[in-house]
Batch of 2 targets.
Target 1
Amino acid sequence: MYGVISPSDRLAAAPSLSGVHGVARIGYASDRGVSRLATLEQRTPLRVLFPRPPAGDPPTAALVTTSGGLVGGDRLDVDVAVGAGAAALVVGQAAEKVYRSLGNDCRVTVTLGVGAGGWLEWLPQETILFEGARLRRQTALDVAADGRALAGEMLVFGRVARCETVTYGLIRDAWTVRRDGRLVWADALHMDSDDIAGCLSVRAGFDGARACATAVYVGPDADARLDLARSLLTRDGVRAGATLCGTVLVMRWLGNEPGAVRAAFEIFWTGFRSAVADLPPRLPRLWHV
């Protein structure tokens, strides 16, 4: 007879696996008005590459997970610091994959800091959650009163090309935003269940969406950018919205086709960075590889 195994039973039966611990610490500082790399620490399986940015773009760092994906017990710690008056763009080299876990969680901690007058773009590519994946991710953003940051994330539930759906596992994706060290916004998506598919199908929630994306803009002009953000939200096959939470501008996307969500996310990002930071309306070439 076949029975249903609960998440707690899976965890109790799973072997103890310590996994890998990848680290990437990147710091940029302004040197006579030019943003330069000031700090770099990296530990396998995380690696940092520095592609030459096109004219008009800030210095670019690309994060690479050399293991090809994350499994239960893996841990990644990413720390990005942009000093006063400096600017940087940090992009993911490819989509991150989180494979089925035997019971242990994989943990990703992202710490982003922006100094006075600084500018940071945090632009990882989508995270693809395989059936049975267990992901705990925490993104903490701290921006000086006159600093600015545009940060985003995208989740894909299952390998769509293989018609895979996520029916069980753990998904916890949490954000905190601080201005000058003071907490101004916190948000968390949490699903820990043998019925993840049921959670994703609730009409008042995901309503069957296979992908979601979030972007936040933090800056002294956030309240003046709401209309701009809403004007850049395409709605062809994608549900999208923007709202102002105090001094934090929050954008969301939901869609049944991850490719459509990704395309809508790109349209917003390129238009928003151009209008707000006077940067070219494009994403790094890595985004299109």
Target 2
Amino acid sequence: MPVYVEHPMGMPIVIEVRDGDAAEAVERVFDWFRFVDEMFSTYKDGSEISRLARDELALDDAQADVRDVLARCEELHGETDGYFDARAGGLLDPSGLVKGWSVDRAAAILDESGLRGYAVNAGGDIRVRGRWRVGIQHPTVRDRIAAVVEARDLAIATSGAYARGDHVLDPHSGGAPRGILSVTVVGPDLATADAYATAAFAMGGERGPRWTARLRGYDAMSILSDGRVLSTPGFPV
């Protein structure tokens, strides 16, 4: 099974394909990720996001994709009671949505190419076409799997502090969430699943699992600091 790996957005993106020759379609996908990086990177001074943050570009003059992503960030801010916040700390950073959104678009490129068996893994957030078994890394034991998701045409996103430290904060308190180690959300859309996982993790162990239990069309698994694992009824393990 061909495996393609590149680092177009400052992280490893791995594409596994079960179909035949997919090299041309995969190259188009990596071109897309490079374009996304040029448009949305918060580290590149010339990106539209950086220019918007410096008030050098009016939102009405930004590309349609940028406007659409920022509009969805505002919707998710409302859906999550402010726990998903692309402007946390006063800084414009939609990266928490951009990764999943770009993978959803990448999957559309592969679909349009006629591929029906693939997995796109962007820094641990995954979208699959066909039937796959996907391991969820344990949040405290690096060589251990916390669960195996039985996935078919599914998006899988995990948020936690174990990979990059306390990079997800409670936007209301400014501090790290308490009582929770990781949240995995599955559903049809990776951008939304990723945002929901980030928000539920930011809510902490008390509120996060209760919030994910009310989601429609998405299911979640939360690993709490005391070792408990709480899953919604439809979580596919």
